[in-house]
FAD-binding PCMH-type domain-containing protein (Vitis vinifera), 417 residues
Amino acid sequence: MEMSRSSFRLLLLGFLLVSSYAASDSVYDTFVQCLSNHSAPSHQASSIVYAQTNSSFTNVLRSYIRNERFNTSSTPKPLIIVTPSDESQVQAAIICSRDIGILLKIRSGGHDYDGLSYVSDIPFFILDMFNLRSINVNITDETAWVQAGATLGELYYRIWEKSSVHGFPAGVCPTLGVGGHLSGGGYGNMLRKHGLSIDHIVDAQIINVNGSILDRKSMGEDLFWAIRGGGGASFGVILSYKVKLVRVPEIVTVFRVEKTLAQNATDLVYQWQHITDKIDNDLFMRLLLQPIMVKSDNGSAKAQKSSKTVRETFISLFLGDATRLVSVMNKDFPELGLKKEDFMEMSWIESVLYWANFNNGTSVNVLLNRTLESEKYFKAKSDHVQKPISKDGLEGLWKKMIELGKTGWCSIHTEGE
Ligand SMILES: Cc1cc2nc3c(=O)[nH]c(=O)nc-3n(C[C@H](O)[C@H](O)[C@H](O)COP(=O)(O)OP(=O)(O)OC[C@H]3O[C@@H](n4cnc5c(N)ncnc54)[C@H](O)[C@@H]3O)c2cc1C
């Protein structure tokens, strides 16, 4: 009896799979037909649309899944994936999804913490922007037009190709997509000096639900304001942003220093909270808190014992040279006890690699690699601490982190004044 019940379940599952594939096939045909009707005759619509039955479907889908939590067999899959290579195909894809009545999820870099760009509980298509990633840097007027499917690494690289004294204030992870990152805000290690990425957007191209391409002038200031922080997908498909570059010095300075609880870390974190928003605006200091195991050395190897502690890592970017950083640190944060030997001078683009955890001497070309990290299972959340945490509060935090053990990490940084 049990045997036949499970056979029945398998049969039912098979039937559901077949019927979902069949449904996706007919949606595919309707969509491709609609796309052909709305595209230039030279465009072969079928070459940019992947049905579930296409042997490349899974590969294309997974290419920009950056969180393993959403890379399981039970994660809802799109009926089709559209990968436009020019704006007219994006226009056609929007019109056709609207006409067929299927939700269109827009994906640029795929780094959404909750997979919002490629997961949905109702039937959906994915509009994958990875082919739209051209970057046009104009050093004369210090701007760049960057398409939504470009990564931050590609943007940093193209700026560096043209100038060693320009940069852009955005995230520290080079594979973040411009489409999601810039429409959501964008903070990075030049935050204190230059604010968010969106503070440097001067124009944009967006396609609305009717398939019209709008720029800043034709969309109006309200919509232009909304797509700088409100998340692009609520308003249309962002094609590209025009950003104003910022000046960076020829030489910047970085440091990374680790302290454990036994090294007075609680006092340092407490102190850090009081100075980090007032210290020189050229200095950004991120604090990374992690529970770790340490070996206590009782003389003989046999007597070594492992115990848990919390490690604080101060990671920093200073927009200036090491000599000036020494005087900034001596004046405002002498408790950290840093000397010039603890600092490393480098170019701004090298600091991008340093912050992305590449070894010293790694070629800048690595920024053009769109699939750098191995995907992980994770859940991330941000909170905004408005008043310094008391020493008791910090000790409570350490206790919880040690108790939980493997919690990933917790990072604190400040926006400054
Ligand atoms: C490992 C990691 C590191 C991160 N580091 C930082 C950091 O240093 N600083 C920081 O500020 N943030 C950081 N983030 C958060 C990140 O900026 C956001 O998750 C951002 O939305 C990712 O953009 P994306 O294009 O890569 O993601 P996607 O998943 O492609 O898109 C995110 C959202 O934007 C929408 N969207 C994407 N493209 C478009 C488009 N062209 N038009 C309209 N809507 C669109 C999607 O539909 C989705 O809702 C990090 C995230 C991860 C996972």
